[in-house]
Structures are given as structure tokens and as C-alpha cells.
Amino acid sequence: MKINFPHRQFAHCESGVTANLLNYHGFPCSEAMAFGIGGGLFFAYVPFIKLNFLPLTTFRTGPGSIFAKATKRLGIEIKREKFSNPDVAEQRLDRLIAEGHPVGAQTGVFWLPFFPPAYRFHFNGHNLVVIGKEGNEYLISDPIFEEPVRCPVEDLRKARFAKGALAPKGKLYYIANMPQRFDLPQAVSAGIKEVCRGMLKTPVPLAGVRGIRLLARQLVKWPGKFDEKQTLLYLGHVIRMQEEIGTGGGGFRFIYAAFLQEAADVLENDKLLDLSKHCTEIGDLWRDFALLASRVCKGRAEIQDSFHDLSQLLLQCAAEEKILFGDLQRVISD
Amino acid sequence: MSSALEHELAELIIDFCNVEDVSAEEISPETPLIGPDSPFGLDSLDAVEVVVAVQKTYGVRIGGEQTSREVLQSLRTLAEFITREQNGG
């Protein structure tokens, strides 16, 4: 059994899965558009929540929210299921594929044998689409890869029931029903408004622009508070969350800039083109931060002097993002 | 056989990432740039430096839907990306 599913490669798994599923169901959609409608851009630094012993730092909204919100804003009916029993979870997946549904699944990267060993780390928020089954293998559209891949049944079972933070618990999701018509401008506006709210109007100082400032204030204290190994682990973690795990670089700011460019067309508003450029410039600023941080981690820059500069760069990112999202909010409300 | 651009990129990476005991002439354009099989010995943190070095030197941004993982597969894929971007994508 194999579903004729058009596979496309993208930078970010959940946005890519969303775009590919929408495309399959007759709604042509780029990765950037899926990310933007889904209100994917965010920032949060939560030092008291640790993932793999490192403070939670994220440049996007929570796992699953991009697919859920993008489909909701487009009026698409979806189904999501979680399981406690791996046998039941596998039977359900097989039944859905047999019925012709391409099925999204949350998995743990470590257990997916088609990932090169260097990329198989303990991250349980990886999304892919199961598009068929042949013998003892599932056929998979994983947007991180150039071509569809195969995965032994046993390995996918382990990946769907990986333990630890963000444990997937066999989570499956699929599109059950598409509407007759879509209100794309409305969906785009709603996605933008959510991101502006998240970045500017969060009630807690851990998220949005205030979260970036909090990280700037705390980061400068790390060399005095922790030993060198711990300090560099914390710093390396921030860069990895920003530049890896499918962000497209600059903590998703480049992907969001691409979305704003598309949004200018959808909403017939050229002001969004200028804001797209500003968003790209902010992505470059985040990259300047990552560059200095990686030089510190690699011992190519002095720790003591650099942490002050790193903190200043973060404050600059926060200041620019405050301007960008303020402007964006005004443009969308006009 | 490496092109002039591939050779230039090997020198840029050696310089930016302080790679020791390797010369640009020794690097095959097809070998992996990042990861355990990289003759440069580069990891994901080095990748950030390569991305920024390429942007500052050649004026092309690796980002967005053009993932650095794809572009930084080898000297060849990186050179092809730069050439393509400089010729207008």
C-alpha cells in the first residue's frame, strides 16, 4: 500500500509536514506560509524548566501548534490521536493508511534509522508523514530529506513511543475534511496577529521581547555563576536551538521573512515587503550573536569579554524585534 | 578535481575555523563538510561560522528554506549554491 503523496523537502519538520499535507489535499502551500498562518514564530527562555538538563530556550511555539492553528485558521477539519498501547497505535496507523490517509506522526529522532548517526539525538518533537507500508517497512515522507524514505516497523514503533521530554505517546494526526473555500487573507492576518501578541504582549517576562531581554540579563552572569564547562554547554544550547533543529537559521526569522513576503501578495499590502526585509536583517543580527557564541564555545574568543558583547547583541535583537512586531501589528490593524 | 571556487572555500573554512593539519589541496570537493566524516573536523557550531563567513565573503545568505544542512553537505554543494545565488537564484 502506497499513497501517491507529493514529497517536498523543507527546512523545518512541522511546517514542512503541514505544507505537504495541505498540498496533498489540494491547497498549494509553501513551508513559510504554513509556518506563518500557524503563528509559529516566538521566543521564550524559561530557566527553571530544563530539557536534557539545559534551560528551555525556544524560537517557536509549542510542538503541534503550527499544524493545529494553520488548519484551524483555514477551516480544515483534522483528527489527532494519542495512544498508551504501541500495538493499538500501530494497528490504528495501518488502518488509516489502508483507508488512504497520509498520516502525520510525532517521533523521537534518535530511533529513526534513516537519519545519519551524527543527527540522531534525543529530540522527541520530530514530525513526518507516513504514506504507505510495504512488507515490514513503512514508507515515509520526512520533509527534512530530499526523497521519501523507508523505516522498519519496529523502529517507527520505538520512535513513536520514545521516552523523555516531549514524549510523542504514539501521536498521529491527519486531515479529515477540507472546506469548499478558504479565507486565506483572514488566516494570514490571524497568524500575524498571534505572533505580534506573543512577542509583545506576554503577561510573563519569560516570553517574547521580554524573554530575549531576560536571556541577555542572565547570560552575562553565566561565567560568574557556573564553571566553564557548564557555561559553554548553556551557550551552545542556545545556538543549537537558534541555528539547528530546522529553524532555517536566525531562529526562524528568515523563514518568517519569507512568509511576510508572501503575505504582502495575499493581503495586497506592500508595507509587508519592508517588514520582511527588516525581519531578514534581524535574522542576520541573531546570526551575529550565534557567530560570536560559537567562537566562544570553540575557544576562539575570550569568555569574559565576549559575554558582555553577547548580552548586548541580544538586547539589540530585542530592541529591533520590538520595532518590527509593533510595526507589523499596526500594518495588520490598518 | 576541485574548481577554483571549491579550493577558495576550502581555504576560507580552514582560516575561519582554525583548522589545523589540513591543507586545501588535500580536500576532495565531495567529502562531507560537517560531522564525524569531515576531514576538516567541523561540527554544527563550526557550521554557524561557515554560514556567516560565506555570507560576508560572497554576499549570499544560507537560510530560510535553503537549509544549511543541504548546502553544507560538501565543498561542491556549497560552491554550487554560491554560484546559483550569485547568478540570480
Automatic annotation (TrEMBL), chain A:
Q: Where is the DUF4872 domain?
A: 154-327
Every copy of the Butirosin biosynthesis protein H N-terminal domain together lies at 12-143
Q: Which Pfam families match?
A: BtrH_N, DUF4872
Q: In its UniProt entry, what is this protein called? A: Butirosin biosynthesis protein H, N-terminal
TrEMBL record, chain B:
Known Pfam families for this protein? PP-binding (PF00550)
Residues forming the Carrier domain are 3-86
Name of the protein in question? Acyl carrier protein
- What species does this protein belong to? Desulfuromusa kysingii
